[in-house]
């Protein structure tokens, strides 16, 4: 059994220790924000934070990270108020959205180490691929996130990510008539 911490929760996977972290997160923990892209560590769609480092989850086995602390996009900030998340929303970066969780995780890991990254630091640290071509806005977005994290700038909090299940049941009319 492999044990480590995911999003501040201790986990114990009853999977082969050679299982890639990506599949343990997606299949066993239902943390589907970590995306499968290329499977060989080049695209970065599966980027997570392991002990403060941006890591491609498809390239790490669960056995290799025994005792580590893993943060996925779901654990970064439930209310989307991490500076990286806020900056990506404020700058309207997401298009198709597939690469965005990995880019946000790479940004968050960079900002943990470097509160004031240069454009060159950003380009060297965030090597994730984007099929939509958000690169022209990426550097500006990461610089904004760094500025927000340092407290030099503010961004309005994003809207709530949804409504509660009880609100949904009360506000959405039933689509299927209830039998009596």
Automatic annotation (TrEMBL):
InterPro entries: 2Fe-2S-bd, 2Fe-2S-bd_dom_sf, 2Fe-2S_ferredoxin-like_sf, 2Fe-2S_ferredoxin-type, 2Fe2S_fd_BS, Beta-grasp_dom_sf, Diverse_Oxidoreductases. The keyword Translocase does not apply. It comes from the Bacteria. Keywords: 2Fe-2S, Iron, Iron-sulfur, Metal-binding, Oxidoreductase. Residues 1-76 form the 2Fe-2S ferredoxin-type domain. Residues 153-180 are annotated as: Disordered. Pfam families: Fer2, Fer2_2. This is (2Fe-2S)-binding protein.
């Amino acid at each position: 059994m492999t044990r480590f911490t995911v999003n501040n929760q201790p986990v114990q996977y009853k999977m082969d220790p050679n299982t890639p972290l990506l599949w343990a997160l997606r299949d066993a923990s239902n943390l589907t924000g970590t995306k499968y892209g290329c499977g060989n560590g080049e695209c970065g769609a599966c980027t997570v934070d392991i002990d403060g480092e941006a890591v491609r989850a498809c390239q790490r086995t669960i056995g290799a990270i025994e005792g580590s602390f893993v943060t996925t996009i779901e654990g970064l900030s439930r209310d989307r108020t991490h500076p990286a998340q806020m900056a990506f929303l404020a700058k309207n970066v997401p298009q198709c959205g597939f690469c965005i969780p990995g880019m946000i995780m790479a940004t968050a890991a960079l900002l943990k180490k470097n509160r004031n990254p240069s454009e060159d630091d950003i380009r060297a640290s965030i090597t994730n691929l984007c099929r939509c071509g958000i690169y022209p806005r990426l550097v500006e977005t990461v610089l904004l996130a760094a500025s927000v994290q340092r407290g030099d700038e503010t961004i309005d909090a994003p809207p709530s990510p949804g409504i509660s299940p009880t609100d949904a049941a009360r506000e959405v009319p039933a689509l299927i008539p209830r039998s009596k």
